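Q: Structure for this?
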Amino acid sequence: MPPYYLTTPIYYVNDAPHVGTAYTTVNADALARWHRLVGDEVWFMTGTDEHGAKIVEAAEANGTTPQDWTDRTSARFVEAWRRLDIAYDDFIRTTEPRHYAVVQRFLQRIYDNGYIELAPYSGLYCVSCEDYYTEDQLIEGTCPVHGRPVIEMQEDNYFFKLSAFEDRLLEFYDQHPDFVRPVSKRNEALGFIRGGLRDVSITRTSFTWGVPVPWDSGHVFYVWYDALINYLTVAGYGSDDAAFASRWGAAHHLIGKDILKFHCVWWPAMCMAAQIDPPDEIFVHGYLLMGGQKLGKTMIAAGAAGGDGAKALRVTDVSPLALADDFGVDPLRYHLVRDVPLGGDGDFSYEGIVSRYNADLANNLGNLVSRVTTVVQSKCGGVGPACDEGSELAAVAAETLETTAAAWARWAPHEGLEATWRLIGAANARLEAAEPWKMEPGPAVDAVLGDALEVLRIVAVLIGPAMPATAREVWRRIGVPGDPGSARLPDAAAWGGYEGGATVEKGAPLFPRRKA
RNA sequence: GGGGCUGUAGCUCAGUGGUCAGAGCAGAGGACUCAUAAUCCUUGGGUCGUGGGUUCGAUCCCCACCAGCCCUACCA
């Protein structure tokens, strides 16, 4: 079993999970499940990023300590991912002792290698960004990101000598053409590197909520600088050499485009400085856009505050948990995986979810389950007949498996699902042509319905990564024992798996059609 | 200022230096009634953003322009 180590970004615990973070996490979970399905030895992690001045501020504003505040906010992510059926193997919090140990070990190594040095730094500082700005970067004297006033600050900071890695990074990119995908994002990273790299200030002395710098007790590491290292903590850096050797040789980061620079520029340079390999691959996805606007914390906050009445009120729908309550967990997951190609930006709208839900889930998959189980009741006494080994659908199923698998393998789960749905369409067409509901019970009816049941069995396997609960329910209704999540390709999708003789249940519609 | 991306049927998007530019959804017509007013069949003539250029020939190559988005040192 080839190892496959998949990571999401760790989420900053300043606010609740929103649809954007759910988008990343659900897609990562679906990809992890897909890799398990094809037999990879998957290690899938997510977590929360909990240091920095903003956390200290938020804790104070809420009348509590940073530790208490991060305990509470991190728990909201755990809960959200539980609700959304995220099957991670590890959830890391950057405030955990295991992470402190790895950060200190890793950065001590870089320090010992001579890539970190002390330098005085003074300038205009934004507390929210935790960063300095030059005069001309400011907008009317305020931070260009947050619009907040900056303050005059001076401190001795340790700097990571990022500038020393310009050539080595370019060389690495040259030798690893698939390091960053898609290509458009790789170009962006290359452009950034070619534009010249500045050394990065990586420590702070103005507060203590961070990982202490091991060689200088007055400093803590800057939050981003400790955050990236979480991937190593989970992989077992310095604590489990066997796990680390396996996982770090197969590390795949899924990230949003906003943090491209840290992952595609800083991170490989940090790895080089510490004499380990950079990760295998970084896949950069786009944003969900809503009415052309970035859908994020800021927008949610603005909406909650009032603003433009009708639109602002829809903000509650934008909570992934609210959407899950409304549509169901699997339909939400399906929408997040199916409707937006990973890599580009995508539109996110209530109408879009409803439209996709009705077309794919209610009319096609759900309705197919209903009609097949109904006819099995009336023509086969509720017992599912075996499929026909020589069915014309066997070839369609084989082609579907091939196309679906190829798509998932290249980070195109939306195309994978699209391909899977063609098999559902073929089954519907086949029923229409054969009209088993008009036939007398017998071998001919059995063959047609057995084939339809076999399609449902295979479809359940293939949709499992995106909709695990639905996959289980389909198997249960058609009488297939076990959990499709434990199935392994390609065997599980080979034609002929539906043996017949099982009790088929006609239940309520899987996905009741929604009114637009 | 610099860099990157996008602009293709009502909507969301595929796509290729050359026979009629494609899919899904929506819409239209028909069939059917097992099924969740579902399904199946038929139906898409859209200046492939605008103007040039290269070429025997471009939607796809080059240039300019227009429109929109993003990055330019810390919100997935």
